[in-house]
Each structure stands twice: as structure tokens, then as C-alpha cells.
Amino acid sequence: MLLRQLFDPETSTYTYLIADMSAKEAALVDPVLEQVERDAKLIDELGLTLKYCLETHIHADHVTGTGELRKLKGCQGVLPENAKVDCADCFIKDGEVLKVGKIEIKAISTLGHTDCHMAYLVNNDSLLTGDALLIRGCGRTDFQSGDAGTLYDHITQKLFTLSDDTLVYPGHDYRGQTVSTIGEEKQFNPRFVGHNRDSFIELMSNLNLPNPKKIAEAVPANQGCGKVAATV
Ligand code: FE
Asked: Domain containing 107 — which CATH number?
């Protein structure tokens, strides 16, 4: 299996290319509009057919590349169930498995950062956590119908119960970190170590983070799979 981590420096977003190199089939998770050319070139160089663009959630910080990649590559745009979008080719449910060649990608509903969010467990050993669990952090819960208690429950009950050596690949990183493990995050993630549900909610309500720069543009664009509204 090929699992390639790609980075967008403007928004600190990770996109993941997952490919079965013998079947020559691939999926991209959370592509970024500004990086579509880079991603399409890599897919061409590796001789892959792009089957799916998968979103972990409706992003507020960047515009998705799914719409453009679908035009270029004829792939399907897959979104988490209940995502309020009008452009998905299909929706994926909690526990559902997508196949890319022989690779199995299992959706794990991980709500709380937003009200529709999936983590994707690849071949049972690599977990793409989107913005639910980050390395030594977690996604914010103060907009897009986020809910700190729900995020705590889903991370502790659904992600922290996976095997300790499961690799954790986050949707963003702002400190240069690339990959962790479930065991490491259980041991060292300061949002969870020494916290219970109530103190986690308290911690999350006092973060006072500024809104992402692109939120006004990104959310509506992502509800249309990356169609940026023409400015008048
Ligand atoms: Fe997000």
C-alpha cells in the first residue's frame, strides 16, 4: 500500500493519497483546491486511477479540491453521511468500508469538531483522523455545530480504543509534526491527559481562537464541493 502525506503550507492542511500499486487504484482524502495540480500530477506520474475523493468533513479553513479533481479525473466525491452539501456522488456511513484495489478504508463517525465528521481507518493500521484528533491536540468545537462533550466521547470511546500501535495521521498540523500513534496520544495529548469529560469541555470553551481566515468563503464553497462563488 502507498500512503502519501501531502501538505498545503498556507492552511497547514494534510491531504493523503492512498493507493494500491498493483491494482493502480487510488483515493485522495481532503484535497485542497490550490494543490489540485500537484495532486493530479503525482497521480499521473504514478500511473494511478483516482477512484474517490473523500472528505473527513466540511472544512472551514480551506476550499476542497474535490470538484476540480472530479472534473479532471472522473473520480467520485464521497462525503460523510448528514453532510449538508448538494454535490456529493455518495455519502459514507459509520462503519462502512470503501475498497481501493485491495485496500480497505473504514469510516468511523467522530463527531464534535463538526456535526458530520469521519475518521478513516486504512487497512486497520493507519487512522486518518481529520480534525477530530490532532497530534497532541484536537479540533476546535466552537463553530460549525461543534460540541466538546461529543468530541470527547467519540475520541475516547472510538479512537482511543483502537490498538495502541495504530498510526495517527491528522488533518492539520501547525508545529511540523507528521504522524503519531494512538498509544502516544493516549499518553501525551494534553487535551486528554488528566482530563475528564467536564474538564475537557471547560478547556475547549476557553481556547478563544480566532476564526479561520477563509471561513466565510470556505464553508459555502465546500457545500458545493469546492465551487468558489463569483465575486460581484
Ligand atoms: Fe476542520
From this structure: 3.60.15.10
